[in-house]
Amino acid sequence: MPKVVDHEQKRKLIAESAWNIIKEKGIEHASIRAIAAAAGLSPGALRHYFSTHDELLLFIVDYYLTRGVARAEERLEISPIPMKAAREILLQLLPLDAEKRTSSGVWWVFAIRSLTSLALQAKKDELTDGLHYLTKAVLDILAEAKLLLPSVDLQLETLRLAAIVEGLTILALLRPELYTPETMEQIVSRQLQELCSQAMNE
């Protein structure tokens, strides 16, 4: 009887093996040969799943980020209270636990690589557009609840919120002892309070 191969499980093993090499040794060491060895495959067998290095990177990003977002959306129940809902959405974007720290690390390795790879730029744009979509959704929630002044520049604030999320993400990876989950939650809460305070005081 021929052996049944679980291709999805094999691809999962490849993605995790590749990320472990990137995390421990750097992306320059994540060659097809090294990843194949870590996954217990021959280079030829790995190329059966991914024909190029960039194709493999795209899969790693999809595995850790796209699926992670889908799982987060399934678990997240948005509060009916506008300010609380805005906070919940923003916190979902930050590396507050080990799983999200891994996803964030994958994202930044991928983002840097995309600067010199045309094959990766479309995915990079798709993911950053997704971040802007979510920060715009936060502002829409606040605007609909009349917690923002009509004069607020929604386009600028969308970019500013996205910059805050990405900045906190980088700093949480670089200085986790300073940018703890509790500190990041406080920063997000303070940002939302300051954004809404003028309207609430009128």
Task: Write a brief caption for the model.
The chain contains nine helices and no strands.
Task: Explain this structure.
- There is one protein chain.
- The chain is mainly alpha-helical.
- It is 76% helix and 0% strand.
- The protein has helices at residues 7-25, 32-38, 43-49, 53-75, 82-92, 98-114, 118-144, 154-174, 181-201.
- Helix 1 packs across helix 2, helix 5 (82-92) packs antiparallel against helix 9 (181-201) and helix 6 packs across helix 8 (154-174).
- It is elongated and about 60 Å long.
List keywords for this structure.
mainly alpha; about 200 residues
Sketch the topology as an H/E string, one letter per element.
HHHHHHHHH
Give the overall silhouette.
elongated
The count of β-strands is 0
Calculate the mean pLDDT score and round it: 86
SS strand fraction: under 5%
With helices defined by DSSP (H or I, 4 residues minimum), what is the helix count? 9
Instruction: Determine the oligomeric state from the structure.
Output: single chain
Structural class call reads: mainly alpha
Largest sheet: none
Please compute the radius of gyration using only Cα atoms. 20 Å
Distance between the termini: 76 Å
Query: In which range does the helix fraction lie?
Result: over 70%
Uncertain stretches: none
Indicate the topology:
Elements: H1 7-25, H2 32-38, H3 43-49, H4 53-75, H5 82-92, H6 98-114, H7 118-144, H8 154-174, H9 181-201
Helix pairs in contact: 1-2, 1-4, 2-3, 4-6, 5-7, 5-9, 6-7, 6-8, 7-8
